[in-house]
Structures are given as structure tokens and as C-alpha cells.
Amino acid sequence: MSSILILNGPNLNLLGTRQPEVYGRTTLADIQRLCSDHAKSLGLDVVFEQSNHEGALIDHIHAAKDTHAGIVINAGAYTHTSVALMDAIASVDLPTVEVHLSNIHAREEFRHVSYISKVVVGQICGFGAQSYLLALDALNSRVNAT
Question: N or C: which end of the chain has fewer CB within 10 A?
């Protein structure tokens, strides 16, 4: 059974209470349950990690290389600032899908730039928690295509 790392960046631990008008009332624990159930229906295992620290996120990406078949990443604000995360994703050579709960292209201009989009297989944004499920569908198609 293929395993997918679902990696969440800074402030995502506050989902459900942080700016609910933008991010909704769904908590990270809710998203984890939704993803676990959906992954099971696809025949996938998922591992969840969240950190507010860039280096810890990089360590999780590096560790994924020999453990997981792909990565779903919501890098939060690091999406728009982190060359280090971009380099880490590129270095592990795993299919990676970037997700965002909100439509980053309809928000402040600085959010329109994603460093990590340059090294992922695709980006899904604007569908709330459903963005994660769509990313699992996409990775399932990719990792089980062979």
C-alpha cells in the first residue's frame, strides 16, 4: 500500500479559529480525519505532520524520500517565501501536490507568488478542506499509474 505524507506549515494548527472568514471553521484535526477516510477508500496510507518551523518541514520532506510515494503540502506562508522548501521538494524527487484552503490568486498580491509551485506536479487551491482530498486523488492517480 502506498503512503502519502500530508505536510502542513505555519499557523495551520490554528485552523477553525484563525480567520474563519478566510479559512473556514474546519480544524486541522477535521482535515486529518477526512483525509484518512478518503485515503483508506483509495487504498492509501497517510501520515500527517504539522510544524510552524521551516527546518522541521524540510526534515519531514527529506525523510519522505525513502518512506512515502508522494507528498501533499500546505506550506502556509512559507509558500510565498521559502526557497529552502522549494529546494527540499526538488531534492527528494517525489510527486508533490501543493494545496491551499483559500484561493491564493484571489487574495493579496504577495500570495500570488508560490516558490514551491515551480517544483510540484500541481497546485490545488480555493476548495477548503476538499483541496486536500483532490490532492490525494491526483497523487493516487500518479503513484498507481504504473
Answer: C
